[in-house]
Amino acid sequence: ESRWNFLFAFLALPALLQLCVLPFLPESPRFLLMERRDEAGAEKAFRAFLGKKDVSKELEEVHAESRAQNTLHMASVTELLLNPALRWQVITVIVTMACYQLCGLNAIWYYTNGILRDSGFAENVIPYIVISTGGIETLAAIVS
Questions:
Q1: CA atoms within 13 Å, Cβ hemisphere of 5
Q2: φ, ψ at 9 (rounded to 5°)
Q3: Interval 85-109 mean pLDDT
Q4: Secondary structure of the chain in the HEC alphabet?
């Protein structure tokens, strides 16, 4: 418990690295065209990324994507529930997420060290068990 600051510093390193490097990374041509409406910047970015002078085809594809995106209608939860084709999927997702929150997994993770200590595991082994369990859970989530 006395070395929490090292753990914090270890976790802060990627954020600091991103903070230092991000200003030097180029903007995406799609972002420049669709969000900032910067046609010249998008054309310049496409030329830099693709290494060719004629990027009119790529620009037209992004324009078509932008037009298609602007014609989309965002449905509300009520509209999704009223649509018979989507109702069952929406209810399944809601029930799954509610069960995940209500199953007590966060409490189990919070008390894992104490549970393992009370079960008779040695103090120096407990962190490895917890890390292994978390790794297996992460691997299972990735595989599924």
A1: 1
A2: -65, -40
A3: 91
A4: CCCHHHHHHHHHHHHHHHHHHHHHCCCCHHHHHHCCCCHHHHHHHHHHHHCCCCCHHHHHHHHHHHHHHHCCCCCCHHHHHHCHHHHHHHHHHHHHHHHHHHCCHHHHHHHHHHHHHHCCCCCCCHHHHHHHHHHHHHHHHHHC
As a whole number of angstroms, the distance between CA 81 and CA 77 comes to: 6
* Per-residue model confidence (pLDDT) at position 86: 92
The closest alpha carbon to 129, from 109, 144, 103, belongs to 109
Task: Determine the distance from the C-alpha atom of residue 129 to the mean position of all C-alpha atoms in its chain, rounded to a whole number.
Answer: 26
pTM of the full structure: 0.49
Using CA atoms, how far residue 80 sits from 87, 88, 128, in Å, is 6, 10, 45
pLDDT digits (tens, 9 = 90+) for 61-95: 999 998 888 888 888 989 999 999 999 999 999 99
| Residue 59 token pair | 């620009």
What six digits make up the tokens of 123?
A: 């103090």
